[in-house]
Prior knowledge:
Elements: H1 8-24, E1 40-41, H2 42-45, H3 55-73, E2 77-80, H4 89-94, E3 97-100, H5 102-109, H6 113-118, H7 123-129, H8 132-135, H9 138-151, H10 155-178, H11 180-188, H12 192-201, H13 205-226, H14 235-254, H15 256-260
Antiparallel strand pairs: 1-3, 2-3
Helix pairs in contact: 1-3, 7-9, 9-10, 9-14, 10-11, 10-12, 10-13, 10-14, 11-12, 12-13, 13-14
Amino acid sequence: MNQVMKNSNDAMSFVINSLRNILKNPIKRGYGSDVRKFDFSSCDIIPSNYQTHTEQEHSGNALILDALWDLRRRGILRQSTRNDNNISFSSFAYFRYYTFTEVGKEWLLSGDETRFVFGFSSSYASLLQGFKDKLGADYLVWGIEAANCYQFSLYIATCAMSGASGESILRHLHKVKFGEERTCKVFKENNGKNKAIDDLAQGKNDIKNRLQSFNDKLSIWRNDSVHGDVPYMEDFHAYVSLSSLLSMAKYAFDNFERITKNDQI
């Protein structure tokens, strides 16, 4: 079967599905002790039509190997070795050997496709990045960290990072509208975010209500997550935080000119 790898998302989706199949149906090998040293090699993952040497096929190989490396970096896989005196160095360098970590097994077999979307396919990060031309880059740093935390079920951290990203959006809008000096002063005051929202709305109730709604959803769990008492956070709270952040970024992007226009000038 021909498997076309157009981009890293295609490759990661293909690799994840392949790994889940290997976990459910372990590969049986016929060379003794090697079975205990690794779960699979990259040649078990790379489709047969990519195990040749055209430019397109090298590109497909690279995408798959990059995906495997990313999973290793995230703790889903660890690299292993194969004791075989007959294997050449060039083959060893190309056909890497991998073993599933215990966390990786649990994660892959959970079947939670939402995690794959938010994490490994980078879809969430790509969507969030689409707004940076108007919203700056600060919110993006926090937002990507939030998605990475969610990927590994770090729900408290997800809520904290999502809230910080939402605050970065408010700060940027306020700075564009009123300048850095006034923005710094407002955000140092008590209830600074609420005052910033009032400033941005300038009497426009629809803007105030939307920004306030986003801020309320992001702030309540963000505030709980950064205080000393251990908060109760689960998948639902983190998912809503990420969804609210994405909705807030899109609203701010779509209404950027209207929000940042200073009617008092």
